[in-house]
Amino acid sequence: MDTEFWVIQVFNGISYGALLFLLAGGLSLIFGVMRIVNLSHGSYFMLGGYVALTVIWTTDLWVLSIPLAALTIAMVGLIMERVFLRPLGFDPLRQVLMTVGFAFLFQQGALDIWGGDSLDITPPEVLTESVVIADVYFPLYRVFMIAVAVAIGVTIWLTMEKTRMGAMVRAAVDDSEMARGVGVDTSRVSMFIFALGAFLAALGGVIGGAFLGVYPGLDFEILPIAFAVVIIGGMGSLGGAAVGSLIVGLADNFGKALFPEISYFTLYAPMVLILALKPTGLFGRE
Amino acid sequence: MSEKTKIIIVAAVLVALLAVTPFANSFVILLITQALIFAILAMSLDILLGFTGLPSLGQAAYLGVGAYLTAILATNYQFGLDGSFWVVIVLGMMLGAVTAAFFGLFAIRATGVYFLMITLALGQCVWGLAYRWNSLTGGDNGINMPGRPEFGIDLADDLTFFYVVFGFFVATLVVLHLLVKSPFGRSLVGIRESELRMRILGYNTWLHKYIAFIIAGGFGGLAGVLWAFLNGLVSPEDVILTTSVDALLMVVLGGPGTLVGATIGAGVVVFLREYLSTLVTWWQYVLGGVYVLTILYLPGGLMGIPERIRQRRTLSAAAERAKAVSASQ
Q1: What is d(CA B140, CA B137) in angstroms, rounded to the nearest whole number?
Q2: Which of A77, A103, A183, B299 could form a disulfide with A40 if both were Cys (CB 3.0 to 4.6 A apart)?
Q3: What is the domain range of residue B188?
């Protein structure tokens, strides 16, 4: 194991982490604002990939598929939140079962529409090349993934810190009752956050579709990993989600490379430890 | 309905099941056996969810350790394929309980959403080991069982195996029923209703929850041993998240806090997954629909329906009376 091995593994870990950030950033915000354990979040990721494929098949435009898929799934999330989750009130168990029911419905729907084969999203040719730095090959697509995650992360961070809407979201995360008391429409904040979460997950699905593929079962495969990110980083904290994504991305890569037999264990055991020692995650607040 | 009538009804239904099953075809016998095994798992979860108020999202882990123990003993050591079957049953329950005792150290402190998350993470740890620890678990392919035990009676016969599973099911039902009726069981319900009050009354609520967690793990392990022998294959599929979620649905659908409800729920879910899926390709719509509709319209589960009908009747009778009174005035 020389330097090259470490450089490549770190780079792969970071780029996988970038993808996880897209998936889990929204989940973390949803959890922070609404305390919902959303088990259909993996479905948004999978459906994002499938919708993007349809857009690519019909228009042949990869660039167009990203916003279209993300917006479509954001609408799905918005409807789900308004019609089904909002009337439930706060009851974690019922929310879990409700969202898992939807995950099954989405799974069957996807199977009926797109079939059972594993599909691939082919990115434009430019992104399939590699850059060579000091004799190490860096696939451009992974660089692109990191760039997208950073751009999205910075945008959301600025929105949270600088705008009125962002301030409302932060207020709802910190103390939703108090926020309601001073006139923040927390119901609308929840709707916005849920749609944003679905949007980001679908975006992740499109971008991840090029190297994970899009197939039935992807939803439940990716979901626990998203939860690991959220738990480790701290629920409701965007910065936490970013750090959590990096940790999980790196742990996953090095776990698979160094200790393949217990690689998933090395992913979930830290999650257990953090939950047991500091239930609010590394960066979450009480 | 008095407690006694309820017990008589349950006993009558069980006797009827025992009498009818031999006449069913072999596929149905396997289906009923599977439903009984998952009923054991669902009842073990009900002790946590229904009686103690702990929504565990990782109950499949105990099914998994029981099943993998059985498979590893059977394939590597040819152990458990004769009279030692009974030893494997005990070992499976013990391993389930020990795993729960270890996991409980992390999980019991947490409440509500955090309990859900930490049990999910613990369940995923078990899945991760099952999926990747190739040399022990066979990885993705799982482990094929060499067959069912034979000791005077041959469990390879599906009907004989059904009788054995039926026996374990009834034993579990009786033991857990006695448990929830015992002072210990009442203290669990007290914790569910108000943990703070129980603590003020001087109960060590952490210990009570911890013991309930271990008992649930033990019976989960029992279900795992039986499942390994029934299915003939133990794979990571048995410990995935959806198995744990299914177990939760069984309890909630049947009616949390009623062991019979968990059994009915197990029957419905197994029927949907195993039988309906052989008939139609769109069975997952039904399964997903059952999830959503249960949550929207059946907060007390199937066992809560009679109560709701009674309430509605009382309400409409009261409305009638009010109407009559206002008409006479």
Answers
A1: 8
A2: A103
A3: 25-298
Q: Give the A:B interface size as CB pairs under 8 Å.
A: 135
In a domain, B171, yes or no: yes
User: Which of A40, A95, A104, A222 should we substitute to test contact with B (largest number of B Cβ atoms within 10 Å)?
Assistant: A104
Tell whether A227 is within 8 A of chain B (Cβ): yes
pLDDT value of position B60: 93
pTM for this predicted structure: 0.88
pLDDT of A32 reads 80
Closest partner CB to A108 (pick from B55, B248, B284) = B284
Q: Where are the domains of chain A?
A: 3-277
Residue B329 is predicted with a pLDDT of 63
Q: Give how many domains chain B has, as a whole number.
A: 2
Cβ–Cβ below 8 Å for B284 and A260: no
A260 interfacial to chain B (CB closer than 8 Å): yes
Domain annotation covers residue B17: no
ipTM score for this prediction: 0.84
Check residue A262 and give its pLDDT. Answer: 76
Regions of chain A where pLDDT drops below 50: none
> B134 and B272, same structural domain?
yes
Does residue B8 belong to any structural domain of this protein? no
Cβ within 8 Å of residue B322, ≥6 positions away = none
Classify B56 in phi/psi space as left (phi over 0), alpha (psi -120 to 50) or beta: beta
Q: Is A145 within 8 Å of A18 (Cβ atoms)? A: yes
Q: Are residues B165 and B181 located together in one domain of the fold?
A: yes
Chain B interface disruption, residue of A33, A95, A218, A272, most B CBs within 10 A: A272
Query: CA angle, B246 as apex, B240 and B247 as ends, to 5°?
Result: 100
CA nearest to A252, candidates A14, A2, A44, A6 = A14
B270 plus B209 within the same structural domain: yes
User: A147 vs chain B: nearest CA distance in angstroms?
Assistant: 30
Q: Which CATH number fits the domain A3-277, given the four candidates 1.10.3470, 3.30.70, 3.10.50, 3.40.50?
A: 1.10.3470
Look at residue B166 and give its three-state secondary structure.
helix
Residues B176 and B320 in one domain: no
- Residue B258 token pair: 């009623």
Q: Is A100 on the interface with B (CB under 8 A)?
A: yes
CB contact under 8 A, A275 and B118: yes
Q: What is the mean pLDDT of each run of 10 residues along chain B (329 residues)?
A: 84 88 87 94 93 90 94 87 88 95 88 85 89 83 85 83 92 93 91 88 90 94 94 89 90 88 91 86 86 83 81 81 74
Q: Both B90 and B195 in a single domain?
A: yes
Query: Six-digit token pair at B40?
Result: 């054991």
